[in-house]
Prior knowledge:
By secondary structure, the chain is α+β, with helices and mostly antiparallel strands. The chain has two helices and four strands, in the order αββββα. The longest helix has 15 residues, at 90-104.
Amino acid sequence: VESLAQTAGGLIAISTKFEKFALMSMIQDAKFRDFVRPGHLLRCRVEIESLDERAARIRGVAECEGREVARARIVFVLLPIEEIIQPGLRDAWIDHIQRWAKASGTGEPS
Length: 110
């Protein structure tokens, strides 16, 4: 679930043009189907179900070796970025998220 939340946080940041920071506030409908061991590649797919100024809800699935190992809906509280990231670190945080998105093939949402 933590991996799904981290992935969703990046997607939410990109989707809000880096104006909001997502803090996980609730996990719903979590299902764990198998174990993932160190060294295994975990692939996370997340989709935003709803997004407004104050909150977001995502649906996510984690897969390992082509098998679903976990799924959940996660609710986030959205805070203005300046309340979480120090001004001097904001550009580095944005750069980190953009590099992650590019490397994962996520890219910019349309």
